[in-house]
Every structure is written in structure tokens, then in C-alpha cells.
Amino acid sequence: TVELDTLSSEDQMALAEKRLISEDLTRQGKHHMAIISRDESVSIMINEEDHIRVQSMRAGLDLDTAYTNAEKIAMLLEAALPVAYSGKYGFLTACPTNTGTGMRASVMAHLPGMVQGGRIRQVIESLSKMGFAVRGIYGEHSKSQGNMFQISNQLTLGLSEEDLINDLKRMLLQLIDQERSARQALYENQPLVIEDQIMRSYGTM
Hints:
The protein is α+β, with helices and mostly antiparallel strands. The protein has helices at 9-17, 23-26, 63-80, 112-116, 120-129, 161-189, 191-204, and strands at residues 2-3, 33-36, 42-46, 52-56, 85-86, 90-91, 106-110, 132-135, 148-153. The two termini are 36 Å apart.
């Protein structure tokens, strides 16, 4: 258990950079804390956007295991706490946009081909129409760094958790194919430019 009031701003930002807590949580003031598992795959944020936020992370596209881990914790919390729930509207959270399942399924996607090929704006607009939000590397209100984007569902009402996860996986698999095609096209059309960028990055590193 980490009481954020007792941490320096540097330590709080270190946790945010590792995505164990959100930047919003570091700005909430008193009575906010986080419970973080030893392997740092699960964290529970207290008094963030909602009263309780359970976060589960896995590498790759292992969304099912991430959800299963989060679900187990949520069930334990529901058994011990008077969680507001409606048979019609689902979970009644402090943030209206989370009403319903209350779940945000997110993936981090590296899309240099889309960015350098000038297609990223079109992709973001298409994903938005499909009900997905595209944000920067640290979530809402953050900018993309290193061509990394966080993609998550926008809808939480009227769909099951399984539906949300399956929709996200189907979309992402299509996006991966498009990104690979964009990278191949870039290298075929501008091989020297791509090799120069790689070597400059390697030299800087």
C-alpha cells in the first residue's frame, strides 16, 4: 500500500511513468493512495477519477488474462463494499462516461509507419467513429511520444466486458496488419531515409 501523501512529487511521477498510477491521482490532494502488487502487474487506485480503480496490465495482446485478474479483485471488493449498481445501467460511477461495465480496455500501439506515412490522423478519425479513443502514451490529455499511442474503448454502457475485449482485439489485429504494410511501403520507397533515422537514433542512444 502506497499513501501518495507521504511520497515526494518525484516518486509519485516515477509511479505514473511506470503506469502504476495515473497522473490525475498525483494531483488529487489528500486521502489518495494506491495498492500495487509485488510484480507490478496490478494496481488499485483509491480516490482517483472514481472512488476505486482497478488496473491490470499484461504484455502483448493478453487482454483476457488482464481482465481475469482485474475481475477477481473487483469481485472481492464488491463482496466487501457497498458498490453502487443498477440492473438497468450497470455500475454507477463517479464519472458518467464509465457507467455500465465501468471497464476501459486499453492497448499501447507503436505506429511509426502510420505516423511517417501521414496516415495517423485518418486512422485516429476512423477509430473514433468505431467507438475507440486514441490518446498519448500516458493516457488522456497526454501527447504521443515515440509514435506510441494508447487505444481504448469509449463505450461502457450496453456492452459486456467480453464484447469490449473482443472488439478491441479484432480492431487491433487489423491495425497491426495496416501498420506492417505501412512500414514495408516506407522502407521500399525511402530505404536510405529509414536507415539514416535508425542509425541516428542508435548513435544518440
